[in-house]
Amino acid sequence: MLLDDALVTLNRAFGVLRRRNVPIEGLALHPSGTAGVSRLTFVLKADAATADRVAQQFHKMIGVRSVMVLANEDSTTEAKR
Fold first, then answer.
1. What confidence category does residue 46 fall into, taking pLDDT thresholds of 50, 70 and 90?
2. Domain coordinates of the chain in residue numbers?
3. Rounded to 5°, angle at Cα 22 from 16 and 25
């Protein structure tokens, strides 16, 4: 996810994850290479529908520039169980 490099935007993003109570397996915050923009990368242990709902909430947030959801084969296997 690309977001404005402001503490309030980062706080809002963490608030979404906290309210959704989705298990997070990994989290990283990096500069994006563009001034004023940071890259927040996180790994959720969730099914595809939950990941899409979280992404939709991020799209609605002020300060979020883009959101990309990537799924791996393990996540689709777990969703079938």
1. confident
2. 2-80
3. 110
Give 74's pLDDT tier (boundaries 50, 70, 90): low
What single DSSP character describes residue 31?
E
Helix H or strand E segment including 20: helix 7-20
Letter string b/e over residues 60-72, b meaning 16 or more CB atoms within 10 A of that residue's CB: ebebbeebeeeee
Query: Token digits for 75?
Result: 């996540």
Superfamily of domain 2-80: ACT domain (3.30.70.260)
Q: How confident is the model at residue 9 (pLDDT cuts 50, 70, 90)?
A: very high
